[in-house]
Amino acid sequence: MLGCKTHSSFAVVEPHADLVDDYIALAEAQGSTITAVFDTHVQADHVSGMAELVARTGAIAYLPVGAGVDFDHRPMGDLEVVVLGNVEVQAMATPGHAVAHHAYLVTDHTRADEPWFVLTGDALLVGDAGRPDLHAHGEHTVEAMARELYRSITQRLLALSDDVLLYPSHYSGSLCGRGLSANPASTIGFERRHNVALQHGDEDAFVKALVQDIPPRPEQQAAIVAANRAGHPLADVT
């Protein structure tokens, strides 16, 4: 959860279906309203709380253009900005883990007019890069997705300043990466220097390494994706 207390405007990013009550209670405790809900992509390993949170708060749902969901939402294009009072959330197209995938770059104008942190979804993780196979299909082969991810990381995320904080959507224990750190946060500079997935010499070497030793797929992956596209609880689609 992030946002601007001055203007009582909060957002939740990557809401989990099991935590919707907690998000609402936290916002109320801060005297604020949840006005926006973001997902970086259609999740494959857990049921999103986006649709329920929007239904209960009246917030606007934001997803990348082309996400392919069946509920009301605002499709965000690359570099589009959502304003939450003094805070701005800018979408950055970072395909590779999923075809439609955004990172969200956050600026708090009460502190500075430069970005403070980036929410990288399943693109750049702490200690690894996102897996390229979960959303691969048709012409979007696993190798093609891995190449997209390389470009998203090197041309978009690593173009950010080294001091920008990095918050991924998953850390140790998730099946969305292989060698994920238990630390839930890092910086662009630290990952540039120490992330094992970023130490390969070129795109071909990155892709070769990324498509090896991919973890098992999440249980009920197809059902979870279907639930997240429909905006329904998992029980409604199984």
Question: How would you portray this structure in words?
Answer:
By secondary structure, the protein is an alpha/beta fold. It contains six helices and 13 strands. The protein has helices at 20-29, 50-57, 142-156, 188-194, 203-210, 221-230, and strands spanning 2-4, 9-13, 33-38, 60-64, 74-76, 81-84, 87-93, 102-108, 117-121, 124-125, 128-129, 165-168, 186-187. It has a six-stranded mixed sheet with strand order 6-7-8-9-12-13. A five-stranded mixed sheet has the order 1-2-3-4-5. The longest helix has 15 residues, at 142-156. The radius of gyration is 17 Å and the shape is globular. The mean pLDDT is 93.
Give structural attributes.
238 residues, alpha/beta, five-stranded mixed beta sheet, 6 helices
Topology summary:
Blueprint: E1 2-4, E2 9-13, H1 20-29, E3 33-38, H2 50-57, E4 60-64, E5 74-76, E6 81-84, E7 87-93, E8 102-108, E9 117-121, E10 124-125, E11 128-129, H3 142-156, E12 165-168, E13 186-187, H4 188-194, H5 203-210, H6 221-230
Parallel strand pairs: 2-3, 3-4, 4-5, 9-12
Antiparallel strand pairs: 1-2, 6-7, 7-8, 8-9, 10-11, 12-13
